[in-house]
Amino acid sequence: MLTNKVFMKKTKRGNILKIVREHYLRDDIWCGSAACQTCPADENAALLDEVPEPVSERFAFPHYLLLDTNVILYQMDLLEESAIRNVIILHTVLDEVKHRSAVVYKRLRAVLSDPARKFYTFVNEHHKDTYVEREPGESANDRNDRMIRTAAEWYGKHLAPRVGKKSAGAGVRIVLLSDDADNRAKAMALGLNTCSALEYMKAAKATFAHLLDKIAQRELVSESKDPLFPSHLTMLQIHEGIKGGKLMQGGFLASRENYLEGYVRVEGIEKAVLIQGRMNLNRAVDGDTVAIEMLPESEWKAPSDVVLVDEQTDPGDMVEPDPTFSVKPQAEREPTAKVVGIIKRKWRQYCGILLPSHIQGSTRHIFVPAERKIPRIRIETRQAATLLSQRIIVAIDQWPRHSRYPQGHFVRALGPIGSKETENEVILLEHDVPHSRFSEDVLACLPELPWTITAADLQRRVDLRGITVCSVDPPGCTDIDDALHARRLPNGNIEVGVHIADVGHFIRPGTALDREAASRATTVYLVDKRIDMVPGLLSSNLCSLRGGEERFAFSCIWELDDEANIRNTRYHKSVIKSKSALTYEEAQIIIDDAKQTNDVATSLRLLNRLAKILKKRRTEKGALVLASPEIRFQVDSETHDPIDVKAKQLLETNSMVEEFMLLANVSVAEKIEQEFPECAMLRRHPCPPQANYEPLVKAAEHQGFEILTTSGKELATSLDKAVKPDNPYFNTMLRILATRCMMQAVYFISGTVQRDEFFHYGLAAPIYTHFTSPIRRYADIIVHRLLAACIGADSTYPELLDKKVNSNLCNNLNYRNRMAQYAGRASVALHTHLFFRKRSEDEQAYILFIRKNALQILVPKYGFEGTIYVTGRNNEEIKTGVRFVYDEEQQTQRCGQVVFRAFDPVIVRLSLDSTNVQHEKLVFELVKPYIEGFSVKAQGADAEVETPKRKGEPQQTTKSKKNKKAK
């Protein structure tokens, strides 16, 4: 059956196009139920149980749940519970969820992919009995609700017992679960069984009573209670207010120190607007986009100078009056506003603890988030006795006017308070990463809060707070250790400054903090967490060059001409105030937006132009531009499981930052080696032996290219020339191969190595060190101390000039650095496994290496590398009747008429082998070219999903690299 959808579309030129889309309807779409007496029997295909056992006694008869969109959007925490089974998801609902929330959609897809959960997707929009046309004047939402009710009606009739037919599941019914009161009312009028998720779970069997805790409180709040907060304006009122200039909008930032205070950053206003007092905050939560109305100047306030923590523990709604803030002089008062509406909530799931209730047996409790900027949350739970000793996750559902606190629901327990996730713990232990809490002796070395810069500090430093300095880092970076500035000088030259966090000011030689940092040697970055080298008070606060905050820095400042030639260099211990902490993407947008002409934009454009000249000069000298398959995971804020993964994308701003970090490192290396020729801590990258290049040279040769390797310059030039127009990824793969040929860069002490061995091969730099990341690398702290001694900003001490002591230190630094890299890769592997659980994908890939018994594969989409074994032990056939022949000279693998060479495109299947719980493996299987008895068939609508590995076959592994900031 065929129907047509007709609609009009206006083109950019103003023409009207009539678009007709054909919509096919069928009558043979399977309902998914084993109890069905109508659909063609298929024992292997049955999904929904013949006799379903629901968790609720709300409906006494056997039934399947049919969900509307709101239930999925707001009750996903409940739906992810394994007890919820035998559920029908309509295609209409699935599509609406996809468009309204990508996060919830991915979570739902994960549930749908688990056969044990008994979730079935019914393609109702293509079934002739469940498809409905949109009526004139009917909204899309109303039409979707009508389709849901129509499908529920059809299922009820479809599964009704047939005369003369018997089935154990005869008479199984449908329950429409809806959190939309209007939808439920219309469903009841049709005689459908329906209720809300809350009503359904309130009648849960005793075994599943704890699942009631998972219900998001979406029911309308009774207006009989006296409101505690002013009403929020509607979106229409907010829009009109902003358009008329009466209201402003911006992001709300809650105060860490005072729970009754916050700020709103409004575009076009340099200083954030103060919000003070419970009524003025009006239920705004940190991160929300809010609408504000300025108060009369007579009501302006000054920021509070006290730390105010909410200590109320009663889960009721009695509100204590706001404390009286000290009255400040008029000159100290700031523009103050009140929140009048919420434009966009930025609620997430929050980790914290549950407070014990004052009332024995009470189900109402207060949850205290670990993040002090988040208000306490009221939840209901029947598991308090257990959860009081756990760190738990809670989600906010709503914040009605009558409630002192937002209302939420329990999501899950993380484990005992203070415990760490098991898999991450294993990774840290296996890679010898020190990760215990910092000792009391170490913490005692930290400065006391509140910490401020004193007049005496300013006298000993160069004051650079008036310069337009900004940082550019990856998204979410909190340990910001470098910032940049560029400005035109009166003489026409350009002043460029690299400002590095002055960690050495806080970490003094010989202290417990110094010894701990030297032992840890580096910050370790896992996919979902980092293990800091120094306590968080330094790494993410006092040493982090955050936007708008005064910080100590060690500055390297050059005077450059327009061709980026250095005219002079100077070094200062300084005080800076970063104007902005930007991500790479944000900085790139500013550079590319010609309309932005402020000081930050001017500085960034100067830096970017000079960086291109510096990079061109480096590459002309033989610096290598290599590649590695780095990937970035998108991690679920609740579970920390990967929900998406993609190859890392680099922008011009990545290169811009890198160039000036490299320039600073070279300049500092020259300075400290000149002053301390016997004990400077440097970093070298040995030239690889020519034998290392054989795989690269041979692979390129088979593709018609000559790679010269006698010098870095020749290698760089020949790599640049090796381009295949028909394979845009070819050059990247060559560079990945070149990376595999390299030696590892290491730290060393200048007096222990001959001068000609100082060379850094990859950077084509005669001398090099690490100066730019002292928050996360201990080597940089030593270099800071040497540089400070060079310029008279600090004194030396015996260990700093002891070659033997520092050579041993270098050994530890090199070891810890190597282990940190491996731990990061192991974390990527773990999250890769989580991503591919219960899923398999056929992806475009390329052969990276030809091995004697295997093909090494690279999947550009994800940056994954893996292995397809073509022979078993002793070169025997890996599968009966399939024999591969390896040609070492030609670097090929042949199977019959199929020949595999490096860089050949292939299609591979990615899946997870979970047969060994201890060591899960990501499996690569060949799809195309197809070899009978070896390849797996391409996945399609009717294709059977292949099992990842069969018993007795060799294990296959994948290698990936962690996305890190290059410095």
TrEMBL record:
GO terms assigned for molecular function: 3'-5'-RNA exonuclease activity; endonuclease activity; RNA binding
PROSITE patterns linked: RIBONUCLEASE_II
Keywords: Cytoplasm, Endonuclease, Exonuclease, Exosome, Hydrolase, Nuclease, Nucleus, RNA-binding, rRNA processing
Keyword rRNA processing belongs to the record: yes
Region (Disordered): 940-967
Alphabetical list of InterPro entries matching this protein: Dis3_CSD2, NA-bd_OB-fold, PIN-like_dom_sf, PIN_dom, RNase_II/R, RNase_II/R_CS, RNR_Ribonuclease, Rrp44_CSD1
A GO biological-process term: rRNA processing
Pfam family membership, one: PIN_4
Requisite cofactors: Mg(2+)
Keyword set includes Cell inner membrane: no
Top-rank lineage group of the source organism: Eukaryota
Broad class of the protein's primary localization: cytoplasm
Subcellular localization: Cytoplasm; Nucleus, Nucleolus
Residue ranges occupied by any PIN domain in the UniProt entry: 63-185
Entry's family note: Belongs to the RNR ribonuclease family.
PANTHER family: EXOSOME COMPLEX EXONUCLEASE RRP44, RIBONUCLEASE
The protein, known as: Protein DIS3 homolog
